[in-house]
Design goal:
Layout lengths: L3 E2 L12 H9 L4 E2 H4 L12 H4 L26 E5 L2 E5 L26 H14 L3 E5 L8 H14 L4 E5 L2 H4 L6 H8 L5 E4 L9 H12 L3 E8 L7 H13 L3 E7 L13 H11 L10 E6 L4 E5 L7 E2 L2 E5 L5 E4 L4
Helix pairs in contact: 4-5, 5-7, 9-10
The chain binds pyridoxal-5'-phosphate (PLP) and iron/sulfur cluster (SF4).
Iron/sulfur cluster (SF4) binds next to loops.
Length: 338
């Protein structure tokens, strides 16, 4: 297990601008010694460094912090129910490493807390009442919870909530594989099948230790999927994405989604134009294994849900924005100043 570090001096010899220090005031810096050890050069061009270093651009502009209105979509505490039949349960609000591109970075300054057992029961009861079939246990990072408690959460949703499909979203295997205990894997194997949604963004994040953990998770019967975020200056090149997706597949991890970076305050310096995002998929399609190619997932503001795009999608424009169609058939304009 590697130590968690929060002091900006850890980033030396890199010199932060005054704006970057202010950004760290609004969105605190935090990472692990393990993840820091993957940094090859202390510069914003380094794919690992760029995911942890505060940038002055984070606090520029006036973008909303919660355009998806997550907090208004909670029928009971910690549960986001936005789509038919599935819901997200926010089990805790802390992570081992703060990703600068996090769409929930607005919560980083809250006091660290986890859902209580009573709240899990309440959420499970809601799932049963509402016919929820698929629950995504997210956070924060649920892998930081005590193993027995995370096992209990999964069991409650499955047994008491009658939920058929369980997913757990975690970045811990990427930012500190040594912190994922054998006990946690064993506990989760008793509730299988569970889909583990990992968060690798760049081939520089692979290590022998991380690979060994992926093998162990597979052996425990956990089903491994990955959700990347498309990040300018980190992975917005077809060659990098091709290596990432094939490398995941080789390690027994299915690339499920690559997320278009959200139009959220604090992440603007990572935005990639949507036509470039689809173009990157187009460059890869046909050249890499079809299993390796994820959907591009675009979360449209207003809580209307994700729009999934593939390499063959055309992107009509209107009023300088992109015209997207949600799963309900509703047309929305999507663009940088919406
Ligand atoms: C992404 C998401 C889901 C799951 O969507 P899938 O397309 O089934 O992976 C469920 N609820 C919310 C609120 C989401 O943002
Ligand atoms: S691991 Fe996920 S929730 Fe945690 S900071 Fe990174 S993106 Fe945000």
């Amino acid at each position: 297990m590697s130590r968690i570090v929060t002091g900006l001096n850890t980033l030396e010899p890199f010199v932060l601008t005054r704006e970057a220090v202010a950004a760290a005031g609004e969105f605190p810096f935090k990472t692990t010694e393990y993840y820091l050890s993957l940094v090859r050069s202390c510069s914003e061009d380094d794919p690992v460094f760029r995911q942890i270093v505060p940038s002055g651009e984070e606090i520029a502009g006036n973008y909303p912090s919660d355009p998806f209105m997550e907090e208004e979509k909670m029928p009971v505490p910690h549960l986001i129910h936005r789509y038919p039949q599935r819901a997200v349960f926010l089990a805790n609000n802390f992570c081992a490493s703060n990703c600068r591109h996090c769409m929930r970075k607005r919560i980083w300054k809250e006091k660290p807390s986890s859902a209580s057992l009573e709240e899990v029961r309440e959420a499970a009861d809601y799932c049963r009442r509402s016919g929820i079939e698929d629950v995504i246990i997210s956070g924060g990072d649920p892998f930081l919870l005590p193993p027995e408690f995370l096992g209990e959460i999964a069991t409650l949703f499955r047994k008491r909530g009658g939920v058929k499909v369980l997913r757990i979203g975690t970045r811990l295997p990427v930012v500190d594989p040594g912190r994922v205990s054998g006990k946690l894997l064993k506990t989760l194997s008793h509730v299988s099948p569970i889909y583990i949604m990992l968060h690798y963004n760049h081939p520089a994040e692979w290590t022998p230790q991380g690979d060994e953990l992926l093998r162990k998770m597979g052996t425990c019967g956990l089903i491994l999927m990955n959700q990347s975020v498309l990040l300018k200056g980190v992975n917005d090149e077809a060659s990098v994405l091709g290596e990432l997706f094939m490398g995941l597949l080789e390690r027994g991890v299915k690339p499920y989604y690559i997320h278009q970076c959200d139009l959220v305050r604090g992440v603007t310096h990572f935005w990639v134009d949507l036509s470039r995002s689809v173009g990157l998929l187009r460059e890869l399609q046909g050249y890499i294994s079809g299993l390796a190619l994820p959907y591009l997932a675009v979360d449209v503001p207003g809580g209307l849900g994700k729009v999934l795009l593939g390499p063959s999608d055309s992107l009509p424009r209107k009023e300088g924005k992109y015209l997207l169609r949600t799963y309900t058939g509703r047309e929305v304009l999507y663009g940088f100043d919406s």
